[in-house]
Amino acid sequence: METRLVVGDAERLRALLEAARGPTLFLVVAGATETSTIPGISIAGPSPEATVLTPTLDVEYLVAGRPVMLDVVPVSPEGLPTPAVITRAVLSLLDSVGYAAVDAGCKFAPRVPHLALPPRRPGARIDEGPALPRGTAERLYRAAKLLGETIARGHSLVAIGETIPGGTTVAAAVLEALGHGGLGRVSSSSARNPHGLRRRVVEAALRRLRRGATVFEAVDEVGDPVHVSVAGLAAGAASVGARVLLAGGTQMAAVLAILRAAEPGALAAVGVATTPWIIRDESSDLPGLVSEIAPGVPLAYTEFSLASSRYPGLRAYEQGYVKEGVGAGGALFLAAARGFSQEEVLAAVEAEYERITRGQGDAADRG
Amino acid sequence: METRLVVGDAERLRALLEAARGPTLFLVVAGATETSTIPGISIAGPSPEATVLTPTLDVEYLVAGRPVMLDVVPVSPEGLPTPAVITRAVLSLLDSVGYAAVDAGCKFAPRVPHLALPPRRPGARIDEGPALPRGTAERLYRAAKLLGETIARGHSLVAIGETIPGGTTVAAAVLEALGHGGLGRVSSSSARNPHGLRRRVVEAALRRLRRGATVFEAVDEVGDPVHVSVAGLAAGAASVGARVLLAGGTQMAAVLAILRAAEPGALAAVGVATTPWIIRDESSDLPGLVSEIAPGVPLAYTEFSLASSRYPGLRAYEQGYVKEGVGAGGALFLAAARGFSQEEVLAAVEAEYERITRGQGDAADRG
User: Fold this and answer.
1) What is the DSSP string of A313-344?
2) In the structure, what pLDDT confidence band is assigned to residue A355 with cuts at 50, 70 and 90?
3) What CA–CA distance (Å, rounded) separates A19 from A157?
4) Which range is least confidently modeled, A192-206, B75-89, B95-109, B329-343?
5) Which of B87, B95, B146, B150 best tests the A interface by mutation, with the highest count of A CBs <10 A?
6) Which parts of B65-109 fold into alpha helices (H)?
7) Given CB atoms, is A69 within the 8 Å cutoff of chain B?
8) Chain A partners of B112 at a C-beta cutoff of 8 Å?
């Protein structure tokens, strides 16, 4: 597989690819925002109310191979699997990459071993009131930075993914709050990007924002626990000499915006790795966001296709469903850096999809 | 500094020293047992009741440089510092060693980033009733093993320390329950080993033990959350190709006994690194325990002395106080493997002791 630079500095991308061949740690930051329960905002769950469980189930599946809190298959009724299937499949190939989930504020703590970031509190609906109690964003940033400083030592690369349904809507609010155009430019887990609904939610959130709010005040008001934690982790890992791969889609633009405001020096160590499905998505604009917020920071995607999969649930990624999450784009980046082929990764993803859908009837049927 | 083999296979010790020069992860497993609140069992706290807070404070200090839950100095009224001072000082020298605390069952979750091992439940007084609800020990072992399998990937060595006041008393009970002589052979944080009191506590615990109990049933009844978690972590790390350094004193004999019963194949990857103060302690017998429980497993200590320290609180280690904990012996092992001298380590320990006792009056006075 080839990794392609979309925007940013080619030399920095080469340094990230080189770092990905050395000691690498893969972290997935999980958290919830009640914003995802607004009908129409997120398809990352069987119902709007159930979307707040998805981060817990995602990381339980990533770590233990199955969701633990609920006995469910991490696949939608239409057979669409969580992108964690890609991440887990790739990690099964990359057996020298250590990995862990980080609970930055799940609604329910994962019932598998995980890194806990105090105060571990989910975000509220940003259209109704403050997302987080005052001071939480800064506290999370500092805790995440400390985690990066301690656990990233000795690693050449730390890849950081996310799982937070509703996170793209919150990302749009954070981007707007920090002076970057976010509305109309973030992606969605749905093939139809709900820009109109999202605009109403974000505008309701922004109306409460005090002029001159600091970055952490802005996140407390209109953010969520995940983006600020990813930013803190990145700053901490960079401070001990690791390169940092933000493994995600348009939510990582919010992370860059937080980092630019909080600790701009850390951006020199950072790149963004996403999936081809995000780059191809015409309803969002990650390249524009990255190049405006953090000029020079490389944005790359790895050429990988599910079009030839035997499974319709996997082929749906090529129709614009799901697109990214749980670090899938970063996992593909690592696989490419370490020389794995499209065929090897596809075989691993299909094998994992088969394993989790075994006995589930249609979901795993060849289409 | 030189690392000396006490018992076990010299070739395995050489392999551990070699592994300690590669990618190394340092974990400290923290948990509480109410057994430490029995007056006379533990001096690891300002009062018997307060000893259950010590693991939380120890790992907060290790990670953040100060206890967070309480604004205290991690030094006893007599100026005796927690052994975490040695560990933290050494980790400041070993800047490529990643580290993290693991909460296996603290009374209060650490208010710093940490690895959480569900179900995260402290142990009860073993003289009064079952230590853990039925099934907890096996659940912790499996969770810890999964953590080892995921986070240890890519590391040549994983060092695992512990902090659990009362842990030596519980270790004696676990050793006896698993058919090894533990009573009269475990050490104590006090210069006067409370063998008589400990015998009464352990015998009360053992009276409840069912004949033919499995290893996990035995830990549920007379154990604590820490030893079984260290064993699970060791098994998980070994299964992904890492060598494992059990960094502690006589409690690690209980870990070896659990591992021998649960997963004896993992013992081939394991060694024990302790302090010279444990080896010199005539009231305990770690060499005898290790050689009986796990023949061939190397037990080593690193020659390091606090006798020439300017501070009486540090010199007290040479009089048999504290002796070991929070991975201190393992930290010294890593420092020796990476070529640090007695002078460099002593200077780092004294600098750290000065930092934490600044403004504390006598504690930091030169003696």
Assistant:
1) HHHGGGGTSS---TTHHHHHHHHHHTT--HHH
2) very high
3) 5
4) B75-89
5) B150
6) 84-93
7) no
8) 118, 143, 146
B86 touches chain A (CB under 8 A): no
Rg of chain A, C-alpha, whole Å:
18
Domain B3-364 has CATH 3.40.50.10210: yes
d(CA A343, CA A349): 10
With a cut of 0.85, is the ipTM above it? yes
Number of residues that this document lists for chain A: 367
Are A115 and B111 inside 8 Å of each other by CB? no
State the Cα torsion B92-B94-B100-B101 to the nearest 10°: -60
Architecture of domain A3-360: 3-Layer(aba) Sandwich (3.40)
Beta-carbon separation of A113 and B147 below 8 A: yes
Q: Which residue has the tokens 């409840």?
A: B208
Q: Do A23 and B154 touch (CB under 8 A)?
A: yes
User: How far is the first Cα of chain B from the last one, in angstroms, to the nearest whole number?
Assistant: 25
The alpha carbon of residue A80 is apart from the nearest alpha carbon of chain B, in Å, by 26
Element (H, E) at A28: strand A24-31
Q: β-strand A299-302 against A3-7: which pairing, if any?
A: antiparallel
- Structure confidence at residue A360 (pLDDT): 67
Would you kindly state where each structural domain of chain A is located, as residue ranges? 3-360
The answer to whether the beta carbons of residues B116 and A120 sit under 8 Å apart is no
Higher pLDDT among residues A78 and B349, named by residue: B349
Burial state string for A130-148 with b = 16 or more CB within 10 A and e = fewer than 16: bbbeeebbbbbbbbbbbbb
Q: Name residue A316's amino acid.
A: A
Q: Tokens representing A314?
A: 């996997």
A154 interfacial to chain B (CB closer than 8 Å): yes
